[in-house]
Queue: 2 jobs
Job 1
Amino acid sequence: MPSSSKTLAGTLTVLIGLLSHCGHVAHAYSSGAPSSACVTMLPIHGPIAQQVPSPYVVNVSSVEVLPSGTVTVTISGDDFKGFMVTAYSSDFAVGTMVPLNNQAKVVCNALSITHTGSALKPNVTFQWTAPGDMFEGTLINFKATIVKERVIFWTGILSAEPLVYVETSPDLPQSGGTSNSTTTNDPGSVLLPTATTTIAPGKTNQFPGHLASDTECGKSKACFHDCEAGKCTFIVSWDDDGDVIVMSMTYRVPDSNEHWVAVGFSKDQEMGDDSVTECIMHDGEVKVQQSYNDGMDNKYLDNKKAALSEQSGKLEDGLLHCTFHRKKSYPRDPLIFDLNNDYYLMVAVGEALNGIKIPHTFDVLPPVSDHRIDLQAMENVAGEEPPTNVLVQIHGALMIISWVMLMSIGITTAKYGKAMFPKINPFGVNIWFQIHRACLVTAAVLTVIAVLIMAVQCKGYCQIPLIAGEGKNHWPLHPVLGLLVLVLTVINPIMALFRPAPKAANRYLFTWSHWGVGVLAWILASLAIFIGLDLEKSHAPPEAMHAMVAWGIYHILFLVAMETLPRPLCKLYNTVSEITVQRGKVYNLERVHQDNLGCVSEDGNSVLALESVDLGDMTKQMKEEEERKAKKELTREEVKVQRAMLLFHYAAILIFTFTLLLVVYLYTPPLHSHADHW
């Protein structure tokens, strides 16, 4: 393959672009906290938080807030680069953040606010709007994580004093009337029109939206839930009543927006071909209706109320609750599954707009039961994160072996291996070509197998929804890149079968096209692997992405080293050799001069004749050296250095590959605790 400086520059440019893209995926935190920080509020780009007292203060413009009222929050202290703030009532995130300038933006469904740039800031001011359905006397604390430098940050910084939620206050006028907004005595607080909230009789001051575990689960009714330590995000319960299943769903909504909760009856533990019953908020009411998961798309049935009766629902105390009767058998519509059979249960939640579901994000997969559930039996089942699919694991392993290991070795061997082992010719073909061909053909076969595996898994094209969570817009590119890689992988060996003879006039066309297709496929496959490791289905930890970034950086360093390092390492040796040759020339000239004066050697032969032969050999060697330099060919010493570096490269690639496989496939992902998200 071509080894010109243009080739190196092009390769480096593409690889640098690749790494820049990957850095954006893994460490795009200069533009704000990522979605992974919504639960922990911790940056993952540095060591542990500082243990010394924080130099920052979080101040709130008022000590009280009315339903749907707004207060101003200010962070001040030393200059800082990044921040993330969330309002908490008990362990639940509440309210809505409102940025006041371009220094901040909302994240985590507007439950949190974060920075938009890494410039130093002396202070930041933003607003927070309270929910309209909290209890009188509820305490709200603002919790902040503040980053001074990349590796210097404080977390768990609380507002100077808690904010008290009040329905009426002598210090704050009530909202209402005909005006769109009302200004309080505090110029930093604006009250918005409040929503009417009904408080259940007998309720006392307590934190909103607390869903406690049901002690009757497994005793008087069957349940599927995500409860931990007595605290839950959802509970689905049911009871067998002859021809119908009496079901109930309760979901702790995280904010005052409209939401939905749905239970799916599935033949496996993955979304697709599932019968779904959902409860959805709209205009203060809760509707119960039927839908169906067609692959990754949820579609309503022609008759949304089919097989349903005795429906009721309400939103009370921050809990979305609905009950309904579901006929076990409904033969008129095959998309409504027969509940006399056993199914895996999965529960999904999300926001709604005007009574229409907004698809749930895919950065955290819905919990699913670990076994098929008999709805006629009395069970108490905890939801778990869906297990990693075996076919997905095989697909990922084959692609990593093909492109992280085999293609890395095959491409670099073609570029640097031709002069490395000139005397090793197994089966009459030089070893560099044997290695190159074996790696590329094996990689092509494994790639085809990997793509076919996913075609079987997805029953065709694996479409990833565009709505895939904050910062996940690159996810749908994964199958597209995979297909492009497949096409290029198949084309390249076909091109090789029809390559011209080595000395043919048009050989250069094949050389450049073969190189270009191979390198392009390598880069696209690397991008696909980066995205694949980020997909929730891969269950890959952040360390896997770090390993891939290290792999990319290593390749840049290796290419630079192979182009620049051999000559400097040999320079000292060559310098010493040249000095020795020069001394020999001086000695020979002196002997020639003596011979011209009549000097002879001890055996009586002429010194001039002997030295003339020596000078001729040296002249020939010097001429060969000049020709080699003109052709930019490596010296024998430089070849030895590159050979050692290439062997090191083989070992390094093997280490990278097996490390990545171990990190991805021996790592056991922790179960997401949905009850602890807020």
Job 2
Amino acid sequence: MITNSKESSANIVTQSMSVLDQRITQIRQQTFQLSQDNEIVDILLYPEEELSPVILGQQNSSFRRLLSLTAYNLSYIDDAYLSKTGSNSVRSYHNAKSNNDLTAADLASLYERVEDKRVYSWLVSDGDTYFIRRIIDIESNEEYGFICLKMNSSFFLFEGSSDFLSDEYITILNEDGNIMKEGSNSISKDWSAYFTQNDTKRYATYTNSIEYDQEKYVLNLANLENEEWVLIGVTPEANILSRITPIITSILIISIILGLLLTVLSNYMSKSIVANIAVIKDGIKEYEKGNFLNEIKPVNDDELGLLAIQFNNMGHRLDELIHQLNEEQEAMRNLEFQSLKAQINPHFLYNTLGSVRWSSFNKKEYETAAAIESIINLLRITIKNSESLITLKEELAYVTDYLTIQKMRYGEALTYSIRTDPDILGIEIAGFFIQPFIENSILHGFDFSERDGVIGIDCKGIGDHIQVTISDNGIGMSAEKVQELLSFKQNNDKRQGFNGLGIPIIYSRLSKIYKDDFTLDIHSVPNEGTIITIIIPK
């Protein structure tokens, strides 16, 4: 029983250590991505006093967007700061629950505690935990500045450990023996004081029974993988035994009852089992030869008889899947060939457009620079998220950048509006399915020589779904044309349209992600316009 107590306590400590390791890894990865982000580097390279109000506003908006995404993904972050080395300039982002704000002097004081050779470091100040990462150019080794994240109390909370090992019994020490998190119980304080005065590294993973104030405890030490930290857990043995003893007793009783039932049932079922096994065995041999359409005929209708019938159904299904797989592989080879034909180096375009953008700014060609910025945003989000889900906010930003570029071409002849419920902006959706419809409206739905074009985009939550409505006042389509466009739903037509992307392609992408839980409808009136309605789950 004591051994079980030790093992249970050790398992809880190991689970808590794994959770903390995962959080540390997330912090490292998120801050590394931020340190490599061109927008973050641009903020540090160009002083605020040298920037126009427009550029400064764009930089602040970009910083808040990047940091809000980081805080959204990592709920245990309260505050984030960006500071340039040797400067009093500080950009900050605060969680809605946070009411703290560090000054430039506070950040400088924290930064002085970071060793020169360390790219990142964990610090504790006034009971708060901070993570600081230096932003360094990989090629020149020049330091631009640093990112500082402040953790909230949930960073050191471990769900599911309260039954055996509550938070008050957990203490965490860093590689220097300093306390990162201290348990509030008196025995935790005593043991943390002992280990801060000794080399915790020499203990490695350690489990032992101890006695404190006439009560027995299980002491556990565990080293984290991603940091040279030690997690110390002190678990009252009574807590563990009170949970383990009823469980073991229940398991023994259930095991005995099940054993008796299985003995009776096995004798009863043995005759019918043997009768069908031979038939199924012969059928499997036929399957091994690739004869999936061979019918297995069961001797009786017991469970194995039903299994034999399922084998027959599976054989027919396998035969269908093999034919379908061959067709899909052929289609995939054609798609790969088309993809290879269309490939370019997107990173080269991104870097080149960035150079052109700054050149336009230097020449005070702000309208051109804004258009290039929209193109860069389109290219960046396409590179990063071409196959993944993105938030509705990112999708609408992508659409806005596209419409900004089109406004450069058509001027006042093209207007648009975007309306959405703020509550649904953070919901992840299938990306890049709105812009193709807008592009089709502009290229094929408007006759600008007759009248100006108006596009409306309306997104709202309806219960457990999101409704996206795209409308225009273009030339419209007849009912026959609409029916023709939607005919692929019945006959799997692969014809292309909508500037080469095609409704079937969009429908296929939504179908793969949402299965049958979405709708796509088109309503159009000649000479009045078209309304496209797409409903997807949240």
